[in-house]
C-alpha cells in the first residue's frame, strides 16, 4: 500500500470526507510530508473505489457546487488494518535489533588500534 | 461559472470521458475549495476577485497531465482501467523499449570500447568522444529499462538524447550520419514514450527480463549481419531504415499472434518511422543531389504509409 493510500484510508476512519477535506487531513496526519495535488488525489480515489476500499457516502450542495463525500468500506478497513499490522511488525523487528545492538559503537566512529575489522560484528 | 472554473473544466478534458463522468464535478469542487482556502486570508477584496480570473497553477496542470497519462496509457493490471487504455499503454511501452533497443544495439554492434571506435574511426578525436558518450548512454538506458529500473532509465534516456543532440550539433558529418531531424525523431519519440512507464507499471517478470536482455545481443547480431551481408547497405541503412524494419517486424508478430497490442505497436512504429522517413526525405531533397538516396528515402515513406493502411484496415476488419 502506498503512503498516500495509507493516509487517505486512515483519514476516512473517523467518518466520510469530501475531496478537499481529505487533502488537508492527509497532510495533517502525515505531519506535512504527504501533500497531494488534486489530480493525484483523484487518481488515488478512483483506484481505491475500483478496489472497493472506499465508496460514495452522499452528495451535498455547497456554494452551488456538488461535494461528494467518500467513506471507508469493510474491505478498506481490513486492508488498512493489515497494513497497520505489517508496519507495526516491521517497527517491532527494527526496535528489537536496535535494542540488542545498542551497546555497540555508532557506525563511522574511528576504531581503536588493533581492534580488527570484525570487531563490530557478532558482538 | 467563473473563468477559473472554466479553465479547470477545459484542463480536465484531457482525461478519458468515462473518468470525467465519474469525477469531474467532484474534482472541480475540490479545486475551487482549494483556491478559496488559499485566498481566504487575503483581505483585499479586489485581489480575491482577480484570483477567479487566473489560470490553474502549474502544479495542478502537471498533476492532471500525469493523471491523463496514467489513465490513457494504463498499466496491465490497473484497477478500473479500460481494456483499450491497457492496450494503448502496453503498445506505447513497447515503442519505448524497441526504440531504445535500436541505438543500444547499434552501440553494441559498433565496438565503442575499441581504440578506434570501430566503424566510427572516420570521426576526428572530439567527435569520436561525443559519439562514444551518446552510444554508451543509450546502451545504459536500454539495460536499465530492460531490468525494470524505470526511474533510472527515465534519467539516462533523456541524457542519451541530449548527448545525441550535442553530437549532432558538433558533427560535421553529412545528412546520412547524425544532425538530421529524422534521426532525432527516431530516437526522441521513444524517450517521450517512456512516460508510459509510470509508477503503476509492474517490474518485468523473470521471463520478460531474460527476453529483453537477450534481445540486445540478438539485435546487435542482426545489425552486423545486415551490415556485412547486404551489398551497398551502408549507403541506405540508418536509424530510419532500422525503425521501418522494426515496424514491419511488429506487424509480423501482430499477425502471427493475432495480438491487438502488437498491432497497435506496429501502428505507432509505422507512424513514427514514417514521420522520421518524411523528414529524412525533406532533408535529402534540400541537401543531397544523389538521386539514389532520395529514391531510398521515398521508398521508406511509401513502405510505412502502406504498412499503416494495412494495419488500420486489419484492425477495422477484426472489429467489424
TrEMBL record, chain A:
InterPro entries recorded: Metal_resp_DNA-bind_regulator, Tscrpt_reg_PadR_N, WH-like_DNA-bd_sf, WH_DNA-bd_sf
Superkingdom of the source species: Bacteria
Entry-linked SUPFAM superfamilies: Winged helix' DNA-binding domain
Biased composition (Low complexity): 100-115
Region (Disordered): 94-123
Domain Transcription regulator PadR N-terminal: 9-81
Designated name of the protein: Transcription regulator PadR N-terminal domain-containing protein
Automatic annotation (TrEMBL), chain B:
Residues spanning the membrane: 95-113, 128-145, 152-170, 176-197, 209-227, 233-254, 266-286, 292-314
Keyword Zinc-finger: no
Organism superkingdom: Bacteria
Keywords: Membrane, Transmembrane, Transmembrane helix
Keyword Membrane: yes
Name by which UniProt lists this protein: Membrane protein DUF2157
Organism this protein belongs to: Kineococcus glutinatus
